Amino acid sequence: ASSISSNWRASGTLDAYLKRHKSVGIEHIDTRALVRHIRDKGAMRAAISSTDLDAKSLLEKVLASPEMKNRELASSVTSETVFEYPAVGDERFHVVCYDFGVKTNSLRNFAKEGCRITVVPAETLAEDVLKLNPDGVFLSNGPGDPASMTKVIEEIKKIAENELPIFGICLGHQILGQSFGAETYKLKFGHRGGNQPIKDLSTGKVEITAHNHGFAIDKESLPENVEVTHINLNDKTVAGIRHKTLPVFSVQYHPEAAPGPHDAEYHFKRFIDLMSNNLKTKVAENS
Asked: What HEC string does the chain produce?
């Protein structure tokens, strides 16, 4: 970027734009060397300061800051109360959404499919969710280390045992995996951005997907009744799982991404089909 705006359409400088939006920018450093360092050493804590310019002091502050591993952050972004997001048009299904930091566009995707969504706080008990009589449960995206969310993992395990359809994305995907006994680990390099290639192992199709996560499910720790459905082609990490006998599946990426790739939006319809089939089975059993 240049400090001088030379395009005839420019209305100001980049510096002024960043200051107006309170965004940090850096200059006069070897950015290629910085990228190589992160590439070799992995993601790490860092500091940028315009007040404290002492390198030793800044390093002490960085080392004193908490690492992402073992940090539970969903409770800092979850809704404090239960609320509803209405269906668009006729209501076909009722979905309970565990809010670990849910994006509004996920709720929109369900709503346009005729789903009424009840959004509940992150540590809501399974028995309280079941009292809402949902047709399915959605585990949202969110920040933090999934291994730190032991209470939530136990509640999701109880819900799955009730054979309710469950769909998880990102953090919800990792929590779902852990509820079945899998382990998660911190990636050396987090997956960020909207151009991650994902392969559907059942069809061979490659999807371009949006990611924003620093943890992943350990493939070797998955139990026999859970199978990998998608992999990240960049590093072969687990990008999707499903239970072999329960109506439960999840993906590591963001199928709701907007703006962004829409290759994976079909997962919402896949969840709708699971709920529909589950309802038909219940009707048949009660007839």
From this structure: CCCCCCCCCCCCCHHHHHHHCCCCCCCCCCHHHHHHHHHHHCCCCCCCCCCCCCHHHHHHHHHHCCCCCCCECHHHCCCCCCEEECCCCCCCEEEEEECCCCCHHHHHHHHCCCEEEEEECCCCCHHHHHHCCCCEEEECCCCECHHHCHHHHHHHHHHHHCCCCEEEECHHHHHHHHHCCCCEEEEEEEEEEEEEEEEECCCCCEEEEEEEEEEEECHHHCCCCEEEEEEECCCCCEEEEEECCCCEEEECCCCCCCCCCCCCCHHHHHHHHHHHHHHHHHHHHHC
Give the phi and the psi of residue 84 in degrees, each rounded to 5.
-115, 145
Q: Provide the token pair at 88.
A: 């668009």
Length of the chain: 287
Domains of the chain in start order, with CATH, are 14-64 (no CATH), 74-286 (3.40.50.880)
Q: How far apart are CA 43 and CA 29, in angstroms?
A: 19
User: For the whole model, what pTM was predicted?
Assistant: 0.86
Strands 93-98 and 136-139: parallel
* Amino acid at site 204: G
Catalytic annotation, residues = 170, 254, 256
Q: What distance in Å separates the CA atoms of residue 69 and residue 215, rounded to the nearest whole number? A: 9
Instruction: Give 134-173 pLDDT, tens digit per residue.
Output: 999 999 999 999 999 999 999 999 999 999 999 999 999 9
